[in-house]
Amino acid sequence: MNAWLEGSVPCSDFRNSEHRFSASRRPRKDKRMGLFKKGDGSSQTSSQATPKSKSRMSVEFGGRRSGEFLSGVRKSKKPMKAVWNGVVLAQSEKCEIYDGTFYFPSDALNMEFYRSSDFVDNHPKLGRRIFYTLEVDGKQHNNAAFYYPSPTPKDAVRIANHVAFWKGVPVSPVGEEEESSGSDEE
After folding, report:
1. Domain boundaries, the chain
2. For 148, which DSSP code?
């Protein structure tokens, strides 16, 4: 029978019994409650069982450690634009940023390129999301723009009815060349 099932895990380097780890002393994660159960029957939260260390080895992304995100909405420091198929779809100095995504106010959109889409989904964090299909020079880019009519977190209310882009629609600061004009067709 497997040593793990018998209640202990042997070390590969040592053969005597004093160098065995008891499985009953190891914390086991209770997946239903997000708790770790210790061998003595008591429980502790995952933050108590595995403290988060601020390692020098963590990778930096956007001025913050990976896994750490800024919460809340903040204003863009530069005027931004969204371009697809060589046409400016939106341009504004009043963009909002939430979780790394730029949201344009509705008055900054060139609405002649937007068509209502039948696709609506429910984002797990922000709530109901409504999509637009982009149409430029006869080319369509389905569900490439979206907005939240009433985002659920309190820290995201400022992005309500602001439009964001994805699926190959680059957003860049005004005055800088976009990396790709994103002439994808769907």
Report:
1. 3-48, 74-173
2. B
Instruction: Report the mean per-residue pLDDT for the chain.
Output: 74
H helix count then E strand count, the chain? 2, 17
Assess contact for 74 and 99: CB atoms under 8 A. Answer: no
SS3 string, 35-84, reads EEECCCCCEEEHHHHCCCCCCCCCCEECCEECCCCCCCCEECCCCEEEEE
| pLDDT tens digits for range 41-76 | 554 544 444 444 443 333 333 344 444 455 678 988
Record the tokens describing residue 96, joined without a space. 């909002």
Q: What are phi and psi of 17, to 5 degrees?
A: -70, -20
Do β-strands 114-123 and 87-92 pair in parallel, antiparallel, or remain unpaired?
A: unpaired
**7 touches 1 (CB < 8 A):** no
Q: Tell me the per-residue pLDDT of 146-177, one tens digit each, with 9 for 90 and over.
A: 999 999 998 899 999 999 999 999 999 998 76
pLDDT band for position 96 (cuts 50, 70, 90): very high
Q: Is residue 184 within 8 Å of 165, Cβ to Cβ?
A: no
Fold (topology level) of 74-173: 2.170.150
